[in-house]
Design a protein that fits this description.
Helix content is 35%, strand content 28%. The strands form two sheets. The chain has a seven-stranded antiparallel sheet. A four-stranded antiparallel sheet has the order 8-9-10-11. A hairpin with a 2-residue loop joins strand 9 and strand 10. The protein is an alpha+beta fold. Helix 2 runs antiparallel to helix 5. Keywords: Cell membrane, Chemotaxis, Flagellar rotation, Membrane. It is a peripheral membrane protein.
């Protein structure tokens, strides 16, 4: 890989005025704190991470604008069928590893990672996964999986369905190192999921709403549905129906279980019997679809 300058240029289309991006501001602050705490394990607090702005872009445009010397950490959201990325410029990775081994972070620009730098990338990526999970998708039933790092950014293609992205920027810096951009790349579907969850958290069901919901539930429980049972049926050819006359006999076969039909669908099945001198149906089982 050809050696390149230490800084990369971001080509994104500003969308700070978009309402759906405003909810990223508190998230960005929490993620920056999580990144800084994690980075402190490698640099003993030499670097600080601050949150920048969120911008909308198209993935191909963002990718082509980045310095090819870098690493992209890939995270999969299997429950959502989605993916997110964290972009670390290569020059920043070299600085962090240099500080870790006692250096000052003053490194020369180059185009390939050492084995030590690759170990840092994988370690940082795997340890960042649970932190992102806690901030982005706190649903107990979901996970965020670190699936590895890509170091050839120009070859990293996303499906066309993920072309619309939101890039949340962060800046890593130290006393002797200028701010270097770090990017969290989210699909618009993930951003929409986060916005829906934020709205639900900010508008919980209050006492008045709970009372109204209880009244609605109580009223719904009193609604009566017509229910009927079909003892048996038979199929008669049209030709025979034309010749039917009083006194003709049609053989019938009673089933072992009789269906109970509600609103045109089989709700349950049971056996015929007698209760208090009247014919009755004893329920044997509830249909699975209706039970769910």
């Amino acid at each position: 890989m050809t050696a390149v300058a230490p800084q990369a240029v971001h080509l994104t289309r500003s969308a700070n005025e978009a309402a759906e991006l405003t909810q990223l501001e508190p998230l960005a602050q929490r993620v920056s704190q999580a990144m800084q705490q994690l980075l402190a394990n490698f640099t003993k607090g030499a670097f600080t991470i601050s949150a920048g702005t969120a911008n909308a872009a198209r993935y191909p445009e963002w990718r082509i604008a980045q310095n090819p010397f870098g690493a992209v950490l890939r995270y999969r959201l299997p429950k959502r069928g989605d993916e997110m990325l964290v972009h670390l410029p290569g020059f920043l990775i070299c600085q962090i590893v240099d500080v870790y081994y006692g250096g000052t972070g003053n490194v020369q620009a180059r185009g390939e990672f050492s084995s030590a730098e690759m170990r840092f990338v994988d370690s940082f990526g795997s340890q960042l996964a649970p932190l992102l999970k806690a901030e982005i998708d706190p649903d107990p039933g979901s996970v965020i999986e670190y699936t590895g790092a890509e170091i050839d950014l120009l070859q990293l293609n996303w499906p066309r369905s993920r072309d619309a992205i939101v890039v949340q920027s962060f800046f890593a810096e130290s006393e002797k190192i200028k701010p270097t951009p770090v990017g969290l790349i989210l699909t618009t579907d993930t951003v929409r999921l986060m916005e829906n969850r934020r709205s639900a958290d900010e508008n919980p069901v209050g006492p008045a709403d709970a009372a109204w919901s209880e009244r609605v539930r109580s009223a719904a429980m009193r609604v009566k549905f017509p229910a009927r049972t079909v003892l048996t049926h038979c199929n008669v050819p049209f030709s025979k129906m034309l010749t039917l006359a009083p006194g003709d006999i049609l053989p019938l076969l009673l089933p072992a279980q009789v269906p109970l039909i509600v609103a045109g669908r089989v709700f349950a099945r049971g056996t015929l019997g007698e209760s208090n001198g009247r014919a009755a149906l004893m329920i044997e089982n509830i249909e699975k679809e209706m039970d769910q």
